[in-house]
Amino acid sequence: xxxxxxxxxxxxxxxxxxxxxxxxxxxxxxxxxxxxxxxxxxxxxxxxxxxxxxxxxxxxxxxxxxxxxxxxxxxxxxxxxxxxxxxxxxxxxxxxxxxxxxxxxxxxxxxxxxxxxxxxxxxxxxxxxxxxxxxxxxxxxxxxxxxxxxxxxxxxxxxxxxxxxxxxxxxxxxxxxxxxxxxxxxxxxxx
Length: 191
Hints:
Order of helices and strands: EEEEEEEEEEEEEEEE
Helix content: under 10%
Oligomer: single chain
Distance between the termini: 129 Å
């Protein structure tokens, strides 16, 4: 509160009391980060809610330097981010957010064995993947068989695809061919 007094040359004066208010600066009340599901993807997001301040609020996300009036930011990679909320008077509030991602889902090995005898079906594949998030499920195509070991037996000659998928739906794929040896033929000789 301020008092202002004006006095003229003969000593007459008037006085007025002036109150200068200090509006509240913006305040970030809620941040909801959603981490990246698969390594290297850009499906992370940040939802920010702020209150207070003067006039409309503008949300800015760094280091990508994008702004909006909603506080919602999508299609984000794993990274360290800063959200700034600025009101119409230029007052602001900031908060730091870290979006993470799971380790890279990758094959450790995919080893297959061909059929031992022509016309047989004792081919096999033994595969192993690591990384990703949670338990890895293996699927063999075209049969559609699934397991958690990555080993499939009793395979006939042909082309195969094996998928390894983690709990977030991240997937790696490998292809292989099961071969067989030539048939054994009788050689007959006439006497």
